[in-house]
Design a protein that fits this description.
By secondary structure, the chain is mainly α. It has a domain of 56 residues. The chain is built from 6 helices and no strands. Helix 2 packs across helix 3.
Length: 84
């Protein structure tokens, strides 16, 4: 159990990126308001639109699972294997 039950699970992601100041820098936010914004995410969670805008920072687990998936499907409509 977490010592801080009021923290959102995304708080661990913020910590993994070096904390609010480092993450603000990675996202290109200015120091004055950006660090406080990210600090607020510790309780509110990282907004989905931010996660989608920066998938290489926030969706790495999902990307890794997709890359590792062996359930590769053909494009819709199938593949035409006929040769003339």
């Amino acid at each position: 159990m977490s010592k801080h039950p009021d923290l959102h699970p995304d708080s661990a992601i913020i910590d993994a990126h070096g904390g609010p100041a480092k993450l603000a820098e990675k996202l290109g936010y200015d120091k004055s308001g950006g660090v406080q914004r990210i600090q607020n995410w510790r309780t509110r969670g990282i907004p989905d639109k931010v996660k989608v805008k920066f998938p290489e920072l926030f969706l790495t687990e999902l990307i890794d699972r997709i890359k590792a998936s062996d359930d590769v499907q053909n494009p819709v409509g199938g593949v035409d294997d006929k040769t003339d």
